[in-house]
Design goal:
GMP Synthetase, Chain A, domain 3; about 120 residues; about 15% strand; alpha+beta; globular; 4 helices
Length: about 120
């Protein structure tokens, strides 16, 4: 007797990740050029919000107000988010409240930077 198999669809083989997870994956491709750790692991992202019309809003900070990439990093983040297949528009807001501190980094980032 042979066992019948039920064909699986592509969605069953590769389920679509939740929107927030896909946004985080994209954020993990953005780096502060002075620190070899992505902005998510550095703890620079304070808020991610999916908005009507497949828009995404991100509130983030920088490691310091005098960060040399203050003009370019937010634009890079916005542009990468806009390239996501299901995102129509992206807005990145910079805040320094609360100010970034080393304690905001993930354990992975602390390990990478030898900050234990």
């Amino acid at each position: 007797m042979t066992e019948a198999t039920t064909p699986t669809t592509n969605a069953e083989q590769h389920p679509v990740k939740p929107f927030r997870d896909r946004v985080i994956e994209t954020l993990k491709t953005c780096y502060d050029p002075e620190i070899p750790v992505d902005i998510w692991e550095l703890g620079l992202i304070y808020e991610i919000r999916e908005e009507p019309g497949n828009d995404v809003y991100v509130k983030m900070t920088l490691t310091s107000p005098a960060c040399p990439v203050a003009e370019t990093l937010p634009v890079e983040v916005e542009n990468k988010l806009k390239l996501m297949p299901d995102v129509n528009n992206a807005k990145v807001e910079i805040t320094f409240n609360p100010p970034w501190e080393k304690d905001m980094m993930s354990e992975e980032a602390k390990l990478e930077l030898g900050m234990w």
